[in-house]
Write a structure and sequence with these properties.
Elements (H helix, E strand, L loop, with lengths): L4 H57 L4 H12 L5 E6 L2 E4 L6 H14 L3 E6 L7 E10 L2 E10 L1 H48 L18 H50 L4 H32 L7 E5 H18 L3 E5 L5 E5 H17 L6 E9 L2 E8 L6 H4 L11 H6 L6 H11 L3 E7 L3 E9 L2
Parallel strand pairs: 7-9
Antiparallel strand pairs: 1-2, 1-5, 3-4, 4-5, 6-8, 9-10, 10-12, 11-12
The protein binds adenosine-5'-diphosphate.
């Protein structure tokens, strides 16, 4: 198994290159050997033609003395490298050695069997590599003659042998050069990947702001670096918000804990009356309740972030839910001398998590009551609009400045720090409202004018 990508790519490249080179060799060898044989056949055919023409003329001149005419023709032609033979039927008139004669007769017979004037025949038993023979047949005064021009395949075989040897020598050399070239190319091509890996290794949670260098952003590796950098940005953002969350949460936890501890220290510093102990315990109880509320909220948001909150979806009537929430907050509204109106007469059925939806409405109503001065009005309205349901909580309270309106749904954000603290707020209520609305595929909007009041509208899709 080849481990590194560089070696694997080189191996693939080499395998492909060698296969291509081998194919090229086979095609080249085949084309060359066929071409050589064709050229030889053409030369032999023209030689046989010339000899036949000369023989016909000599035969004419010597009044039918075939043997004499054949001997004259061979003497005149003096063929080099080839054997020219003239036969009458199967009798050799001239040409060829005694050893070659059986093959010459066989060639003449084959030419006769082919019944053509001109033929080219292969003679496999001629010499070590066989031979090619061109035959020209003609008749003269009732006599049938065959003129043969034969050449052994020795020289072609020798040429092909040298070609094979050259190719066999070139193959390993070429593979070696291609391998070295391929290795160098892949090394060069993959070098940025190595550099990216080294840079990526040096990035930890402490320096998430660092980014990989991007060469050519249009190239594949540039795209990879860009995607990696985008991932780093997202990670950096979530790390940052986690860090802020932990910081804010610890900050919020510190105050009630300090109050509890301070109260206990003071109470225990000397002997107290029963009434004083009761007062101290009441303060401790109040702060502990605040503390558990904060811890509950934090836990809920952390679970929501981890996607671990399972909604308990059930069929419910939103008008009933809204009316019950108003009823439960009526005493608080009365204590603050605020008029709390609930406008939700019509039945509106909805599928959702009743506990969470109740929490959402209570948070909004509670805020409205907290940030509305005595004598003001808070209203809860339920409307249906096509497939949507709208829950609108409006107040005539202090309102929210436009720059704060953008941020009130952020965790731990308070528009008016000192007033919010006075009002017992942690700045988590609206982020919980937003999360509940979104987990029901809805959204929450804010409309507010400082001094005139605020309206929070939750839009939910009825399913
Ligand atoms: P808190 O627990 O501090 O009220 P929230 O997340 O519920 O936290 O609200 C965030 C901030 O938005 C509050 O601190 C307050 O300044 C502002 N706010 C929320 N509701 C209202 C409202 N009805 N009228 C005016 N200001 C509001």
């Amino acid at each position: 198994m080849i481990r590194t990508l560089r070696l694997r790519l080189t191996a693939w490249y080499l395998a492909f290159f060698s296969a291509l080179f081998l194919l090229l060799c086979v095609l080249l060898y085949g084309a060359l050997s066929r071409g050589m044989q064709r050229r030889l056949d053409a030369t032999l055919a023209s030689q046989a033609g010339t000899a036949a023409k000369l023989f016909q003329e000599e035969l004419e001149e010597m009044h039918g003395d075939a043997e004499g005419a054949a001997a004259d023709v061979l003497a005149e032609l003096q063929p080099s490298g080839q054997v020219v033979a003239i036969l009458e039927d199967t009798r050799i008139l001239a040409g060829g050695t005694a050893a070659q004669q059986p093959e010459l007769v066989a060639a003449a017979n084959a030419a006769r069997a082919a019944q053509a004037e001109e033929t080219v025949i292969g003679l496999p038993r001629w010499g070590a590599y066989g031979a090619r023979a061109a035959a020209r047949r003609f008749s003269d005064r009732g006599r049938s003659f065959t003129v043969l021009a034969v050449e052994s395949l020795d020289s072609i075989a020798a040429d092909l042998r040298s070609l094979r040897r050259a190719l066999a020598l070139a193959l390993p050399l070429l593979i070696l050069i291609a391998g070295a070239g391929g290795y160098w190319l892949t090394r060069r091509g993959l070098a940025p990947l190595g550099a990216m890996a080294t840079q990526a290794k040096s990035i930890t949670s402490r320096n998430l702001q660092a980014r990989l260098e991007i060469g050519n952003a249009a190239e594949e590796l540039g795209l990879l670096a860009t995607s990696f950098n985008e991932l780093l940005s997202r990670l950096d953002q979530s790390f940052e918000s986690m860090r802020r969350f932990v910081q804010d949460a610890s900050h919020e936890l510190r105050t009630p804990l300090a109050v509890i501890r301070g109260e206990a220290d003071v109470a225990l510093s000397r002997e107290r009356t029963a009434g004083e102990y009761r007062d101290s315990l009441a303060t401790i109880q109040q702060e502990s309740q605040r503390l558990s509320r904060l811890v509950d909220d934090l836990l809920n948001l952390a679970r929501a972030d981890a996607g671990r909150v399972q909604l308990r979806i059930e069929e419910l009537y939103l008008n009933d839910l809204l009316a019950e929430c108003c009823r439960s907050l009526q005493p608080l509204a009365a204590a603050r001398n605020i008029e709390l109106q609930c406008r939700c007469a019509e039945d509106v059925s909805f599928r959702g998590d009743e506990g969470l939806l109740r929490r959402m409405v209570i948070n909004l109503l509670d805020n409205a009551l907290r940030y509305t001065p005595p004598g003001g009005t808070v209203s809860a309205t339920l409307e249906t609009q096509g497939p949507d349901v709208r829950i609108r909580i409006a107040d005539t309270g202090i309102g929210i400045a436009p720059e704060a309106a953008q941020r009130v749904f952020e965790r731990f954000y308070r528009a008016d720090e000192s007033r919010s603290r006075q009002q017992d707020g942690f700045g988590l209520g609206l982020s919980i409202v937003k999360w509940i609305a979104e987990s029901h595929h809805g959204a929450v909007e804010l409309n507010s004018r400082p001094g005139a009041g605020s309206t929070f509208t939750v839009r939910l899709a009825r399913n």
